[in-house]
Amino acid sequence: MFHKVLVANRGEIAVRIIRALREMGIKSVAVYSEADKDALHVMLADEAICIGPAPSTESYLNMEAIISAAVALGAEAIHPGFGFLSENAKFANLCQMCNIKFIGPSAEIIEKMGNKSEARNTMAKAGVPVIPGTKEPVFDAKTALRAAKKIGFPVIIKASSGGGGKGMRVAESADHFEELFNAAQLESIKGFSDDSMYIEKYIQNPRHIEFQILADSFGNVVHLGERDCSIQRRHQKVLEESPCEAIGDALRQKMGRTAIKAAKAVGYENAGTIEFLLDNGRKFYFMEMNTRIQVEHPVTEMVTDTDMIKEQIRIAAGERLSFTQKDVKITGHAIECRINAENPEKNFMPSPGLITDIHMPGGNGVRIDTHVYTDYRVPPNYDSMLLKLIVRGKDRSEAIAKMRSALGELVIEGIDTNIDFQYDIVNNKAFETGKISTDFIETYFPEYVKK
Ligand code: MV4
């Protein structure tokens, strides 16, 4: 096992990883920017080292500074968390060249799955259902239009290097298709320096269902069930739950086996997520693979009684998975609400600043993953997520009751938050009856959706 691990992240996930390391008897090294000198992850780690100024390009994305810190302090591995360098193939490769274990899959797999068009092809070849669409990337509007006509409208135009909704457009018909294509492509060139695009049939009001995978370096792969992440706003998840209300055991098994097949097809190692879209006819399609630990991993931990961060570290250290698929039991129901420093009344504008007071709920089945505390100043430089409120109940209805109670108790003073917005979501009738899809917020909270 490792003796010392560097955590190349900040915020609640850095805290989460440092705690797992301490439980495992592994020394932790925090890295921090000048804006984060008073951050909780810095206080909790065994050692901490400043890696640069506030802008993340000069600190949390500064590969040389992070690798140098690991070498200087003798860390044998780096946990990248999510965001920042977690899906950066160049960084994973740099770690390997410096003899530091990157806690995640190989640079080759990150690269392969980072190209969404290539990932689609790889999965299709492996017999994983993909959404009908182009088999080769397209680079110009005319070729794309021909492909779109073959697929049949509506279609969705996506950037090969995309994700997070950037470089994506829906085309209802051939009219304006070329304009939409060019706009999506321009966004992709600007955002990812890549003009490679692909076209898919557009699935109306799908559910976003993702399967959690764990794969060790001996080729053993298990899935830990799914998360329903359909409630999103501008491609940012707002609330996640496990299991998904809409799939029974038969479909769960089928999707789970498909997720394992997908992971095995690329020789996957470590924790990963297979994202599917589920259409109204209950057909499911591979959409993307995420090669990192995800924000919403706690809902899976709560219903499977696992510690996914510890599993990641064990796998990276070359240990075998200690359980098989038949040992995985999903019990109860978990929900996570992301609490952000933002103002829903002002188009979710970020609201950094001083937290003058905070009261956190607790009790049976209530978990909070956070880095904030009273008198903490939320810096304006990073993601606005403050806290993840996670509850687990014996079934969905108990979990909803717990979440309503916990959100009602949660108080954060000094800055604006989305606590009340989350409270309205969990008190919504459609949410209560499980009628959710990716258009949930537009449908039930149109006043919050800026046109
Ligand atoms: C789709 C789709 C419908 N049909 N692809 C959104 C982000 C990116 N990862 C892919 N996305 C979508 N791809 C086809 N062929 C609908 C979405 C989508 C979506 C997906 C999951 C959760 C929320 C969403 C919100 C809008 C669009």
Keywords:
single chain; 451 residues; alpha+beta; Rossmann fold; Dna Ligase, domain 1; D-amino Acid Aminotransferase, Chain A, domain 1; five-stranded parallel sheet; 15 helices; 33% helix; 26% strand; binds ligand MV4
Write a short abstract of this structure.
This protein is α+β, with helices and mostly antiparallel strands. It contains 15 helices and 22 strands. It has helices at 11-23, 40-44, 63-73, 89-97, 107-114, 116-125, 141-151, 177-192, 249-265, 297-304, 308-316, 396-409, 419-426, 429-432, 440-444; strands at residues 4-7, 27-33, 47-52, 77-79, 101-102, 155-159, 169-171, 197-201, 207-215, 221-233, 236-242, 270-278, 284-290, 333-340, 342-343, 349-350, 353-354, 357-359, 366-370, 377-378, 385-393, 411-413.
CATH fold type of the largest domain: D-amino Acid Aminotransferase, Chain A, domain 1
CATH architecture of the largest domain: 2-Layer Sandwich
Report the average pLDDT across residues: 97
> Helicity level, as a percent range?
25-40%
Which CATH first-tier class of the largest domain would you pick?
A: Alpha Beta
Strand order of the largest sheet: 13-12-9-10-11-14-21-19
> Spans with pLDDT under 50 lasting ≥5 residues?
none
Number of strands: 22
Number of helices: 15
Specify the CATH homologous superfamily of the largest domain: ATP-grasp fold, B domain
Described by strand count, sense and barrel closure, the largest sheet is: 8 strands, antiparallel
Q: Please identify the structural class as seen in this structure.
A: alpha+beta
Count of all domains: 3
Bound molecules: ligand MV4
C-alpha Rg (nearest Å):
21 Å
Beginning-to-end CA distance, first to last residue: 52 Å
Q: What is the approximate shape?
A: globular
| Percentage of residues in DSSP E strands | 25-35%
